[in-house]
Amino acid sequence: MIRGKFLKYCFKVKRLLHNMSGSNSKPFTVLVEGNIGSGKTTFLEHFQQFEDITLLTEPVEEWRNLRGWNLLDLMYKDPVKWAMPFQSYVTMTMLDMHRRPTATPVKLMERSLFSARYCFVEHMMRNGTLHPAQFAVLDEWFRFIHREIPIDVDLIVYLKTTPLVVHERIKKRARSEEQCVPLSYIEELHKLHEDWLVNRTFAECPAPVLMIDADLDLSQITEEYKKSEHQILRRAVDVVMQSPNKMSPKKPITGSAIKIVPQIRL
C-alpha cells in the first residue's frame, strides 16, 4: 500500500520535472560521494529508470587513456611522481562534468571537484605524496575555479561505508590499478569523507547531505537506493519551484546529515 502511494508520487514528480525541463532553470544537481568501492556507480545506475535525470559517471576511462597513457595506473604505482599530473587532469575532467550542459531538470554526478580537493588532494598533501609547492598549485586552481566559475550543487548523497567492507569489494572487483591499494589508504579516505560530510570539522560542505548506509552487499542495496528516490525528487521539485532560475547556496551548510539506514522503511 505504502509502496503504491510512493510510486504514484514518483509519477507525479516525474511529470512535474518533465514540464520544468523546457524552462531556463539550472538543473537540480546531486553529487554522489563516497569512498573507493562504496557503490557510487551502482547508485547512479539505479536512477537510469528516470528519463528526466542525467547521469554523469566519474571519467575513469579518460584517466586511463590520455593519449594512450594510463594516468590512474601511473599514479597508483608511483604516486610521488604522478600525483600532481594526475590530480591536475582530474580537476580538468571534473570541471568539464560540472559545466556540461544537460537537457534534463535533474543531474546526478559521481564525485566532484569538492571531493577531489577535500579528500584526495588533501590526503596526498597530508601523507607527503605531494610537495607543498605542488599542493599549493592544485589548491590555487581549486580556489580560482570555486571563485570564478559557478559550480552549482543542491544535494550531496553520501554512501557511507566501513573501510574493511569496501576494501574487500575492491579486491573482488579486481581493477588492475587498485590491486595495490592498502586498507590504511581506505581508512584515511574514510576519515576525510566523514570530517567533510558528517562531522563538518574540515572544509566547506556546499549542500545538504543525504547519508545512506552502503555497507550492504551490492546485490541487496537496491532497496536502500529506492528510499533515496523520494528525498532526491522531492528536494528537486522544492528547489526548482521556489526559484525558477535556481542558484545553489553560497554559504557552507552547517546542519546535520539526513540518514537513511537499513532499519528505516519509507
UniProtKB/TrEMBL annotation:
InterPro entries, alphabetized: DCK/DGK (IPR002624), Deoxyribonucleoside_kinase (IPR050566), DNK_dom (IPR031314), P-loop_NTPase (IPR027417)
Top-level division of the source organism's lineage: Eukaryota
Record GO cellular component, one term: mitochondrion
UniProt keywords, alphabetically: ATP-binding, Nucleotide-binding
Any one GO molecular-function label of the UniProt entry: deoxynucleoside kinase activity
Residues annotated to bind ATP: 34-42, 169-173
Name of the molecule in the record: Deoxynucleoside kinase domain-containing protein
UniProt organism field: Euphydryas editha
